[in-house]
Structure formats: C-alpha cells, structure tokens
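Tutorial, part two.
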Amino acid sequence: MSVGAMSSERIESDENVWTRRLVLFLRVMAIVSIMKGLYHWAQVTGFIGGEEAFENQSMAWQTATVYFAVIELVAAVGLWLATPWGAVVWLTTVVSMAVIELMFPGIYGGSLTVVALEAVMLGAYLALAWMAARERPP
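Running the prediction step on this input gives:
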C-alpha cells in the first residue's frame, strides 16, 4: 500500500468521525431501549412487581406501561439499524416519558431525575446529529 493511499484513507475516516460517533450513540441507546422495553414487559407479564402486580395498578399505569413496552423495543430496532424512523420513534419515547413524568406524576411518580436523564440523552443526540450533519459536504 502506498503512502498516498494510507493518507487518503486516514483523511476519509477523519471526515466521518461525528457520523461514527452518532451511530455509536444510537447503538448504545438501542441497548438502553431494549433494557427499558424488557423491563416494561417484565412488569406486564408479572415477572417483576410482586404485590404491585400489573392487574392491581391503575388503568393509566397499565396503559403507559404497555405503550412503553412496545414502543421502546420498536425504537431499539430502528436505533440499532441507524434508520431515520428509529430516531423518530426513540425521540417519541423520550418525549413521552418526560411528559408523563412531568404532567401526569400519578402514573410513575413524577421523577425529575428521569426527566433530567431523558433531557441529557435528547441533548446528546441533537448535538451529535448536528455535528454529523456539518461534516457532510454541501
């Protein structure tokens, strides 16, 4: 391999550094979404919960739990594949969880910690997506 070929490969890889970081972030968020989705399914099926079993919860809690059990796993698939629809579904889950925690505290308890974590993840995604978009030629 010639020196010119090696330097052009290095330049090409440097040009896509933010895109690679974005894809890595999306894959990490996919794993987190899988874990969250499986956690919600464990609540629905009674695998976890004990005395606070699914059928003993309010209708609002049951509805939210089933919603997140489904949408988190759908988002995980799209995130892992780094598709645009995956990011949209994931953003929907992030915003939905923040809205439920802030506006309907009776469902999951209104944890500001959860809202803060969701906001950090959203901010990280937006920053990485912006930097990845900037490195593409016009």
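Residues 17-45 form the longest helix (29 residues). In part three we will examine how such features are distributed along the chain.
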